[in-house]
Amino acid sequence: MLPQTELARLHERLDRLRKSLMRIGPVAQGSILQRTIRRTDPSRPGKMKDYGPYYQWTRKIAGRTAIQNLTALQATAYTRGIRENRRLEKIVSEMRTVSLKLLALTTPGVAKRRGKRKDAKTLS
Questions:
Q1: Is 124 in a helix, a strand, or coil?
Q2: Residue 89 parent element (H or E)
Q3: Cα torsion 13, 18, 22, 25: sign
Q4: How confident is the model at residue 120 (pLDDT cuts 50, 70, 90)?
């Protein structure tokens, strides 16, 4: 007999996860780097000057690292997309876990075979 409360709880959790997928916005993979370059100031010898910040979006495409320069506004939007992608991955991972439990409870498995008994004579 299947534990009905467990099944109901798993179905409810799966439905909540489906609904949370609907609230996910644009997604992007990778990471955003903020870089600042420090060089000697040509107008003041011996003094340093900071240039930037510059934003770069780094990600993998076909196994290779791809880098794209971004504006500050783009960096903000892409950062939001990367955050949404992490949320998406977490939800999908949890959906897989709940689905496996649900499948295990609702489908019959293979009957286990009894192992061969070893005689006491063969053990000595």
A1: coil
A2: helix 72-106
A3: positive
A4: low
